[in-house]
């Protein structure tokens, strides 16, 4: 089952359909969710391992033991087909392909064992960011700029995804494959993420967790004029153009 948020005649509506083809994607310009969006940093094994030396230096001394969180504020949220607007005077800007975990029930202090019961389904996220200098304290200025969080084009029911912890994620820039990863590269599992966040934040229906982005190398750099697509196995494809602010 696919869940859409579409805008028609100036009004926002939600649709549920059995197949993606029943609703034209050009109608899916709104983000697929409308709740709070919480991101998990340092949740990719390659990224985590690349910072191991820094973790053991001052002021940190040791690697983080629990998920490191950040937010993507409402102004960042856009949908399929909308335009990512990037600054041209602040250095490189990177795509951030990730699985989006969408809550279907109010979750407060849930356990890892029952965390999956609170998940409605999954969507695709492009967690766009400027280059970061601190992963322990992700910079709001780098992550929370307008249009820096495309989400969509829909939410697919969790029951339709056999194993969300083993999904291939592919990123294309101008139709060229530039990056591949898999959700099996998460440092912290989906269940652990939901349990940890809900231990001190009550997650509401429609809230979304960004499961984690890979190491941002030059292959993920985006520029004005590009078209970037993030594709996740069994979920779909999120496409957005890129333009200067």
TrEMBL record:
InterPro entries: Fumarylacetoacetase-like_C, Fumarylacetoacetase_C_sf, HPA_isomer/decarb_N. The keyword Metal-binding applies. It holds the Pfam family FAA_hydrolase. It comes from the Bacteria. Residues 37-242 form the Fumarylacetoacetase-like C-terminal domain. Keywords: Metal-binding. GO terms for molecular function: 5-carboxymethyl-2-hydroxymuconate delta-isomerase activity; 5-oxopent-3-ene-1,2,5-tricarboxylate decarboxylase activity; metal ion binding. The keyword Cell inner membrane does not apply. This is 5-carboxy-2-oxohept-3-enedioate decarboxylase HpaG1 subunit.
């Amino acid at each position: 089952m696919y869940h859409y948020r579409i805008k028609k005649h100036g009004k926002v509506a939600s649709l549920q359909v059995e197949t993606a083809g029943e609703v034209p994607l050009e109608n899916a310009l709104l983000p697929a969710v409308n709740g709070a969006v919480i991101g998990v940093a340092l949740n990719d094994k390659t990224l985590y391992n690349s910072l191991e030396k820094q973790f053991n230096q001052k002021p940190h001394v040791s690697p983080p033991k629990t998920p490191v969180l950040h937010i993507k504020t409402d102004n960042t949220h856009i949908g399929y087909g909308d335009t990512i607007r990037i600054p041209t005077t602040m250095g490189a800007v990177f795509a951030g392909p990730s699985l989006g975990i969408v809550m279907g029930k109010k979750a407060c202090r849930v356990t890892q064992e029952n965390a999956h019961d609170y998940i409605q389904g999954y969507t695709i996220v492009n967690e766009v960011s400027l280059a970061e200098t601190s992963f322990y304290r992700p910079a709001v200025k780098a992550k929370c700029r307008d249009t820096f969080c495309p989400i969509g084009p829909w939410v697919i029911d969790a029951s339709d995804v056999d194993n969300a912890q083993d999904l291939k994620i592919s990123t294309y820039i101008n139709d060229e494959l530039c990056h591949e990863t898999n959700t099996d590269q998460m440092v912290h599992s989906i269940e652990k993420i939901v349990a940890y966040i809900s231990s001190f934040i009550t997650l509401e229906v429609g809230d979304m967790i960004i499961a984690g982005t890979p190491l941002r190398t030059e292959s993920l750099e985006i520029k004005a004029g590009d078209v970037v697509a993030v594709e996740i196995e069994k979920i779909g494809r999120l496409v957005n153009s890129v333009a200067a602010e």
